Amino acid sequence: VESRRTCTDVLFLLLLVCAWIAMTGVGLAATGLIKSEVIKKGDPRRLINGLDYHANICGVTNYQTPLGADVINLPKAYPLPSGYFVCVERCPSVTNYDEFHCEYETVDITNTKKSLQIAHTSQKQCMPYIKSTSFLSYCIPDIPNVTTSNNETHTEISITMEDQINSQSDFFDKLMTDVYNVRYVIFYFGCGMAMVLGIVFLVVIQLPGFLSLLVWTMIIAVDASLIGAGWYTKETSLKWASSETRGGNEAVALFYASYVLYGLAVLWVMIICYIRRRIVLAIYCVKESARAISAMPVMTLFPVAQVLGLVAFTVVWGIYMAFLASSGDVTGSYGCFLYKELTYSTNTKYAALYMLFMWFWTSQFLVAVGQLVVAVSVSLWYFSRDRSQIGNTTFCRVLYLVSFHHLGTAAFGSLVIAIVKTIGTILTYVQKRLSKSQLRLAVLLLKVLHNLMWCIEKCLKFINKQAYCQTAIFSYSFCKAARMGFFLILRNALRISAVSIVSRIVLFINKTFITVASTVAGYYYLEMHFGDELNLLMMPTLLIGLVAYAVSEMFDEVFGMSISTLLQCFIADEEMFDDS
Known about the structure:
two-stranded antiparallel sheet
């Protein structure tokens, strides 16, 4: 397997590298580091900063007010009674009804008397200084109950509203404090214990007879459930037939439904009897996959590296997209309030579509690399003459093999998925644009096409998975590997179906076991050691469960790919050596 390994699909790896370079060029043009006549320079502040009533962006637009102030030096948006905003230097830290923020044109430079500003306030052109909280670039005033007495303006705090806000804020603060105080416990149980439980599960299912008992119990339970549902449905139909409140048609429908359930139970038994030998093979594949992962436990940590890689790419990609999204022309739309509308040139729209395509391609590329790494690791373990020599060092050698031989295949397979996902996104966008029109036939056609693209994507992902297994075993290029994998599926449809049934059962039990056990153990630990210190056990326990579930998902991804690879290794071994 290792000695005949060649470099595959190098051209597509070069294409991916060129695509990354082009994406970087688009991003740098949007940031202004590269001068471009095609893509305008963006400024993310244009997306988050507020608009004044002239549609100037506070802190961004170079606009001279009648008082001589430049909006570019006024980064905060302060609300007026009209619902519009004016740009100010800072949000008021205290309430002062003797000072006002007004529309730029309403302030008479030679006469700034309080009475004039009060008059403008009555016309919704001025707002007194209200203690405000800065959120992004907006000033959010506190909620006072304003009353007037003896011609003097003063404030009475609305106790009910303030108490509600404060109680909600205090509750949130307490939850965050709880999470911070037990952050290490959340990590230890949600991540550490979940990983340990995953390894324990792999060891347990290798015990003689355990996995067989587990799988056959689940299979029998499915048939028993169908029979039980049929019996209950039939008994209910007989009760309804003698009831005055139920119609006869409902009773008859339930009666026939009971026999449908009985028929499904019989059909299930027939299918299981027909593929029983394949189920035995599937159990063997699952057990051997568990042994392969146990021999190289570091393999279960590779999804963490994939996630970190995706996060790193997404951060850079997100920065580029923020600048690109803010490179449009900003206009203000007036209605009940003033809001921003950005219009983009055709080149900017195509650049955004390309950036979206690159996110799809890169994310799928990372997934493909992970699948190839697992597939090569398992194939080396399966065909090794001395499996005692297989260990974590073998996995390090696999990383070298995949990096220098098969990244092109991962780039090719992920490119196909990225193209399909991009087409599906375009169809969704067009469908939403047409949903408000009267072109119902076109909308229906687009929905059909979108569902078709979804099905194609699922099929291609399955074929890609088989292709990566073929590449791992035979070092085929992507096209040949996909073709060989497709015909292998056709030749062994029943085997693959049986493996799919068994693997789904095992992976579901594994996921449930890891998540529930980690969450319950974490809860009891928190209750025993932090019960009197925490305000609410719910939030830390919930976070432990979420982290444990994420770990189980990554674990199942490795386990599932390992099972698929081992099945193909078995079939290849069988076909190459004539069932010997």
